[in-house]
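Structure in, sequence out. Go:
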């Protein structure tokens, strides 16, 4: 029973992958059944096409179907035209026609990878009739029908069988990215007092870059679903732009905190910096959870309070003359840190609004002051 529960838990953790496997199996089976029912000569192409267009999300399946159909139709027309209008006999002439078929289509596919199916289709239309002694025009038409059956079968299965919406995937991807940004902020700001673990920070930064690339790709799929009216989720643009700005904030803070603060400044600023770090990291993780489960954003007032306390302590440090003896590069990083933290606070306000839009929370409930919070702090 323990082993069964462990296996079941692992499978639940791979729900998206299991759903894709089920959709692929159903799509391949139905494509073969439909191709056989219509007496298509090569059901193989229908099955392969159904597997190609069955993707991880509906938006990705839409793009795969569009690209594969355009490439197939273009390749069938071009390959059929070469086969019909250019007389050929013998292997040498067939080799020349193969070069004529592949070269321009491969060049087009290199410019626009979405049309890479055109080259394969043209080769099939050119060679299959020669090997099987079939009519070239009929072979091109058969190829289009076989691909159409597979493409539309795979697309229909993506809509009906355990459909996976890109908007749902985007919630998970955005949450993971915000958690990575929170981890990076913690490592960066702690480094102001004890130095940074550069290996750990590089791993986090690499993870942020990879996650941001995945999020942008998922966002494009989600917008494709919205354009096709297959999803009524929130606009992905504001979320993507806000997270990108937060990523830039992390880079700026990383440059400002490349070395620890001088010891006399650490004694005065370590506590305010720790408070800012805890507030930002906690808020980012709260936003990650809110985006995943569709709840409203967490309270942002702790960030306002922490950043204000840090700014007041910096003003006191300057008033006491502790920044006058700093080298030029150290002073530049010191003041850049304060600017970057305030800039991040502004971007976190934008994140609050975006999370509220994705959860459907009303804007009027976002800036509600908490008990003990003064009105000037709440509006900071």
């Amino acid at each position: 029973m323990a082993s069964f529960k462990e296996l079941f838990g692992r499978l639940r953790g791979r729900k998206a992958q299991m759903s894709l496997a089920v959709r692929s199996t159903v799509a391949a089976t139905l494509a073969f059944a439909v191709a056989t029912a219509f007496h298509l000569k090569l059901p193989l192409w229908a099955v392969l096409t159904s597997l190609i267009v069955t993707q991880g999300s509906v938006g990705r399946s839409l793009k795969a179907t569009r690209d594969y159909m355009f490439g197939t139709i273009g390749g069938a027309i071009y390959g059929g035209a070469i086969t019909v209008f250019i007389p050929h006999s013998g292997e040498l002439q067939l080799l020349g026609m193969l070069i004529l078929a592949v070269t321009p289509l491969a060049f087009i596919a290199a410019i626009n990878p979405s049309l890479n199916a055109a080259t394969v289709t043209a080769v099939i239309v050119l060679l299959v009739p020669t090997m099987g002694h079939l009519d070239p025009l009929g072979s091109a038409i058969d190829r289009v029908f076989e691909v159409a059956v597979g493409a539309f079968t795979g697309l229909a299965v993506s809509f009906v069988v355990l459909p996976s919406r890109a908007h749902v995937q985007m919630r998970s991807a955005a949450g993971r990215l915000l958690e990575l940004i929170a981890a990076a902020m913690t490592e960066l700001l702690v480094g102001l007092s004890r130095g940074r673990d550069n290996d750990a920070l590089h791993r986090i930064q690499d993870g942020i870059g990879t996650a941001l690339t995945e999020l942008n790709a998922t966002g494009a799929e989600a917008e494709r679903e919205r354009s096709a009216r297959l999803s009524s989720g929130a606009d992905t643009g504001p979320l993507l732009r806000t997270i990108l700005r937060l990523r830039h904030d992390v880079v700026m803070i990383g440059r400002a905190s490349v070395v620890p603060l001088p010891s006399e400044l650490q004694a005065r600023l370590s506590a305010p910096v720790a408070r800012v770090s805890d507030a930002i990291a906690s808020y980012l993780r709260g936003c990650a959870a809110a985006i995943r489960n569709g709840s409203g954003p967490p309270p942002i007032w702790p960030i306002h309070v922490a950043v204000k306390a840090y700014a007041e302590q910096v003003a006191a440090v300057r008033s006491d003359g502790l920044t006058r003896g700093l080298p030029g590069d150290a002073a530049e990083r010191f003041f850049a840190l304060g600017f970057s933290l305030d800039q991040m606070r502004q971007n976190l306000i934008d994140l609050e609004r975006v999370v509220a839009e994705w959860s459907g929370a009303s804007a009027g409930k976002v800036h509600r002051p908490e008990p003990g919070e003064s009105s000037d702090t709440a509006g900071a």
